[in-house]
Amino acid sequence: MSRLDEAETFVVIARTGSISRAAEQLGVAKSAVSRRLSDLEARLGAQLILRTTRQFSLTEEGRSFLANVETALEALDDAERNVRAEVQELSGPLHVAAPVSFGLSKLQPVFTQFLIDNPEVTLRVDFSDRNVDLVQDGFDVAIRIGDLPDSSLIARKISFVRHCVVASPTFWDAHGKPNTPEDLRHLPILRYENMRSRQTLTFERPDGTKGSINPPQRVRASNGDFLAQMAVAGLGFMVEPEFVAEPYLRPEELVEVLHDHDWFGFNLYAVFPPGRRPTRRTKAFLDCVEQALG
C-alpha cells in the first residue's frame, strides 16, 4: 500500500470518527482500513489513534499529523485541478525563443493569430539569434534554423529553409552576374556568423552534383537584416534565407542569381527542453506554426 493511500485512509478515519464508517466511505473492507492504519503507525513509529471498544480519539501526534496531511492533500488536489484545467483549456503562459529576423517576419503573424484564437494564453517571446539555454531560462520551446548540435534537446522538424544568392544591381554591374557558383569565389561576401558550418558555402547544382566555395569575407554580423542593408549598399553579395532577402527583392535593391542551385539545406526546427513534456498550448502553437510555414 502506498504512503498516499495510507495517509488518505487516516484522514477519512479521523473525519468519520470510525474505522467502520471510513471503510464504508472508501468502499473497502474494514480489515483493509485497519491494516492501512496499523502499517502507517508502524512506519511512523507513533500511535495516531486511541481506539477501544468504547473510545476513539486522536493522540497528540495524530492531531499534528492530521493537520499536516490535510494541508498536503489539499495542495495535491489543487495541483491536480490546475493540471487538468491546463490540459482541457489552452490557457497559461507560453515562453518562446526565436531568431530575430525570422521571428519578426514570419512568426509575428502566427503569434498574433494564436493569441486571438486563445485569449487565455499569455505570451513571452525572446527574439535573439543566440542559442538560448532552454532549461535555465525556462523556455517552453525554441525555434531554430540550421544544423542542431548534439545535445539532450528534443527537436521537431517544421520545414526546409531555402537560401538564395543576392546582391545589389550596382554590385552585379561592377562584378558581373555569375553563371556558376565558382564565379563567386573571389567576390566579397557578407556573412552571417552565428550559423554553424558556414565558413565554406556548400551548394548543389541542378544536375545533383555538389560543390563548395570559400569567398573572402567583407562583413560578418549576427543579424540578417543588417547584412541585407549592407548588400543593398553594394558592399558585397550574401547567401541568406529567403525570408531575410525577400523584403529587399526589388530591381533597385537586391537581385537574386543562380536560382536553380540549392544552398546549404538547413531546416527549421522546434526544440524542446529535455525531460519535460510539451504542454498542450505549446503543441497547439507549433501546429499553427506548421500550418503557416510547413
UniProtKB/TrEMBL annotation:
Which Pfam families does the entry mention?
Answer: HTH_1, LysR_substrate
Give me the segments passing through the membrane.
none
Citing just one GO molecular function, the answer is: DNA-binding transcription factor activity
Q: Recite the UniProt keywords alphabetically.
A: DNA-binding, Transcription, Transcription regulation
Classification via Gene3D superfamilies: 3.40.190.290, Winged helix-like DNA-binding domain superfamily/Winged helix DNA-binding domain
Domain HTH lysR-type spans what residues?
Answer: 1-59
The keyword Secreted appears for this protein: no
Q: Origin, by domain of life? A: Bacteria
**This protein's record includes keyword Transcription:** yes
Q: Which family does it belong to?
A: Belongs to the LysR transcriptional regulatory family.
Kindly provide the name given to this protein in its UniProt entry.
Answer: DNA-binding transcriptional regulator, LysR family
